[in-house]
Amino acid sequence: MDSTSLFPLLVSFRLLLACIPLHLISGLQHDHQLSSPLTSYSRLKEGLWLYSHNIDPYAGGVFRHSPLFLSIFSTLLPPLPIVWALSDIVGAWALLRIWRARQRVGKGSGGRAGGLVAAAFLLNPYLFLPSLALSASTFENTAVLLTLMFASEGKPSAALLALAFSTHLCISTLLLLLPVLMLLVTSPVSQLASPQEFRGDLRTTCKYAGQFVAYWLVLLGASSLMVGDVYCEQSYRASLTLPDLTPNPGLWWYFFTEMFDHFRPFFLMVFSVHLVIYILPICIKFQHDALYASFLLVGILGIFKAYLTLADPGLFLSMFALFPEVYPYLRHPIVTTLVHIHAALLLPLFHALWVTEGRGNANFYYAASLVMGVAGGMGVVDACYAGLRIAFGDVAEGERNNWAVVQE
Amino acid sequence: MTLCVVQATPTIPQERYHEDLTIRPLTDGKVVTAFTFTTLLGGASPRDPRDAESSAQHYTLFPLTLGQILREYSVTELHLSLNAGKWNYNSWGFPDHPSVGTGAELWAWMADGGPLSVDDRWMGLRNALAGLFCASLGSLDDRRTSSPASAFPLSSVPFPHDSTPYALRHATLPSEHVCTENLTPFLKLLPCKSRAGLARLLDPQRVFDTDWHGLGVHVRSTEAGIELRLGAQAVFDPVRRSRGKRRDWSFQSLFDRQIDVACPVASSSTIHLVVPDIRGYNLSPEPVASNDTVNVYSPTSHVPLDIAMSWPEEHIFKYPLPPPAPQTPLSVKRTLYGSSQTRGVLFVSFSNNDHSPITVGYLETLPALVTLWMHTMKVDVGGIARDDLVSDMIYHPPLLLANGHHGPSTLQTTLTIPGKSTLRLSVDVSKTFLKYTEHPPDAMRGWDLPPAVLFPVLLLLDGERTNASLAGQSIPKRIYTPTLLVDLPTPDFSMPYNVIILSCTLMTLIFGSIFNLLTRKWTIVKMHD
């Protein structure tokens, strides 16, 4: 089966899922693994209700979505599941286009592998479950993939606009700014096996950075015109100060639930700075392959982001499909997969034991979220290793007992 | 000496003190008693907050401690109630003092202006009252304060000279419990304390043993002057005291005391006994006045006074079956259901016991512990959605305050309940995850949510509601629903160090592994020589 028939099949499957009556899957909407206070569907509906009743939706700390959602869903169309399905399809299409750009295959060709790339996105349970729960993280992921797609295809304005949108939806995506700028001035084609120095034009990079800032400010200005500057307060600051301690698979919520009050600002700073720390080393080390650098940073976000949902590690796992060349160099893909499955089964179970059944306590869920963190960490570390290891090639078959490639 | 001062100051206001006791024996054997001690400070008016100078305060009957607080914070109108128990409107009817919400309730109207803001004065007022009444009123902070002006309207006479804006501050603390330490300062505000007059009957041992008991302090300014009404209500159950046998009662059996001394400074002292419809009882002594429904006694002329009521024909008291029809036109039930610790449904049902429709205001004030999902609000009568019965809906989300706290969320609407039917209102709620330091020491007990309030509304005969029979009537007094208990999800309280250690370990593990990979040099080594 080639991509020309597999992709339409997946699309129709996804559209079919969108037709499930909402009340059958309403349990998903309240699931803390699938949507966070920043992305949950019931909060979106509440925001729309408040907005239509002329109450400031950002006043109560309930609604933290972008004002763009308010304007789209209150004027153009109601928040129907089909919108999420379409966003998923666009995301899969963008992933496919990135893959084509990286493999330098034309449209229509690529065969079966192209279809598998789309399947890696559309059939990833970490991605389609949040999408069925109508979490706004679906739109964030699609915006990230569109950014990378336009950047891979060498369309700077479109890429920077898409990046401005995804940063507008989720401030943590700002981490991807540097690799996207690098990707714009270099090529998406895999350079992992033959690392070279960064040869992009620095002046052009700065120009693009300015362009991004301009787009972002325009979006912020548009939001401010619509609802005032409370949006930044409610959404951007929420990612930095964590006012809502609803549990999620990430590391922040229990840490700051249990944090002593006087250490809280310090550790909030540590957790935020810790995210930023990864940008430079990864971009320097992978300066020859900016797409791979952005892939690793997506993986970092999928572990350490504030208000993490399963959609964040899900994006990282689906993006693995873009880099088939590193598969032979992964050290423990099966163990990582098993730990992921372990965490994915434990999280809903322990969540239910704690808050629904009342038989477990918060530590159960915290332990499961730690396992999730371990799984995410194993994936990123392994991807990082494989991306570096590939440059040293293989030891010849007969010499494996005598020679090995190691780090000093 | 004191007398000289009083005579030398012509502006000393005329003070009058009345005391009143209303007793209502009910068909189910309970006895509702309501004490009202009214002190009128004739010719006085509340301090204008813009007046800087403070004149000396001389009172003979009016309590100085309370007068000083009212003066300091220039409070125009003050209502404080401390209650324990759930007022059973269906069997006991409307209470004589309408503020019967469980726990502490404080609301004050204050004129705006002057150097101190209304919120500053509100904070000072509640702290001063907390000291005066030994109650935790200090915790009625901005997390619990709202200003629902239509439910708690200004009943005082405003300043005559200009249109000063007035501001309302209202707060409830449902977990506050009234006890002896509140009654003692309460009795100290009376001119005769508990040594004479009707207050003689307020024996803490007995009052706090009742099914329902509450204290109230109500200050308002009238045309005649500042009026202070101190109220104490209690619902006694003589059947319980007689081990389920008889409903006979007397002052001696209810209060363990009788009125042996009249309060000499009381300008009037009356006892109203609302006689039951059913006959077959004996009453002693003879009332000084009576009509079909009320007997009046006067402890000033009749000391010692011990009113006793007995049913000599009845050997064993039987509870009336079936239970008597509800005493109020409207019955309200409020529940919070849902087994999850994260979500639930707030469900309120309003039953109209009358044949004509009733229109009431409904006020829900919830601390930010629970979030109302307003888009899920449903109103139905007999399973059929009736959004047309809801009007004038005002919703305030829990506002983020400057100190990082969230204020309460308030939902206020006007509901019209059709005759002889039940209107059901449901809203989804979600429960907040709190920091471990924000939980009380007994975190598993849960949090009390304040009662919802039903209040009378003025039925405007205009436009849409020209048909008065459609909107029907309203209720005569406020109705408080019982409080609710909400269990919030709790973290583990012994874990702070463990969580810091484990989370940080995981972060450093990943951070270290990645930087290890990124910084170390790759080489090819020979495995063995």
Automatic annotation (TrEMBL), chain A:
<feature type="transmembrane region" description="Helical">
    <location>
        <begin position="266"/>
        <end position="284"/>
    </location>
</feature>
<comment type="pathway">
    <text>Glycolipid biosynthesis; glycosylphosphatidylinositol-anchor biosynthesis.</text>
</comment>
<feature type="transmembrane region" description="Helical">
    <location>
        <begin position="330"/>
        <end position="352"/>
    </location>
</feature>
<feature type="transmembrane region" description="Helical">
    <location>
        <begin position="364"/>
        <end position="388"/>
    </location>
</feature>
<dbReference type="Pfam" id="PF06728">
    <property type="entry name" value="PIG-U"/>
</dbReference>
<feature type="transmembrane region" description="Helical">
    <location>
        <begin position="291"/>
        <end position="310"/>
    </location>
</feature>
<dbReference type="GO" id="GO:0042765">
    <property type="term" value="C:GPI-anchor transamidase complex"/>
</dbReference>
<feature type="transmembrane region" description="Helical">
    <location>
        <begin position="206"/>
        <end position="227"/>
    </location>
</feature>
<feature type="signal peptide">
    <location>
        <begin position="1"/>
        <end position="27"/>
    </location>
</feature>
<keyword id="KW-0337">GPI-anchor biosynthesis</keyword>
<feature type="transmembrane region" description="Helical">
    <location>
        <begin position="116"/>
        <end position="139"/>
    </location>
</feature>
<protein>
    <submittedName>
        <fullName>GPI transamidase subunit PIG-U</fullName>
    </submittedName>
</protein>
<keyword id="KW-0812">Transmembrane</keyword>
<dbReference type="GO" id="GO:0006506">
    <property type="term" value="P:GPI anchor biosynthetic process"/>
</dbReference>
<feature type="transmembrane region" description="Helical">
    <location>
        <begin position="68"/>
        <end position="96"/>
    </location>
</feature>
<dbReference type="InterPro" id="IPR009600">
    <property type="entry name" value="PIG-U"/>
</dbReference>
<keyword id="KW-0732">Signal</keyword>
<keyword id="KW-0472">Membrane</keyword>
<comment type="similarity">
    <text>Belongs to the PIGU family.</text>
</comment>
<keyword id="KW-1133">Transmembrane helix</keyword>
<feature type="transmembrane region" description="Helical">
    <location>
        <begin position="159"/>
        <end position="185"/>
    </location>
</feature>
<dbReference type="GO" id="GO:0016255">
    <property type="term" value="P:attachment of GPI anchor to protein"/>
</dbReference>
Automatic annotation (TrEMBL), chain B:
<dbReference type="GO" id="GO:0016255">
    <property type="term" value="P:attachment of GPI anchor to protein"/>
</dbReference>
<keyword id="KW-0472">Membrane</keyword>
<dbReference type="Pfam" id="PF04113">
    <property type="entry name" value="Gpi16"/>
</dbReference>
<dbReference type="GO" id="GO:0042765">
    <property type="term" value="C:GPI-anchor transamidase complex"/>
</dbReference>
<dbReference type="InterPro" id="IPR007245">
    <property type="entry name" value="PIG-T"/>
</dbReference>
<keyword id="KW-0812">Transmembrane</keyword>
<feature type="transmembrane region" description="Helical">
    <location>
        <begin position="497"/>
        <end position="518"/>
    </location>
</feature>
<keyword id="KW-1133">Transmembrane helix</keyword>
<protein>
    <submittedName>
        <fullName>GPI transamidase component PIG-T</fullName>
    </submittedName>
</protein>
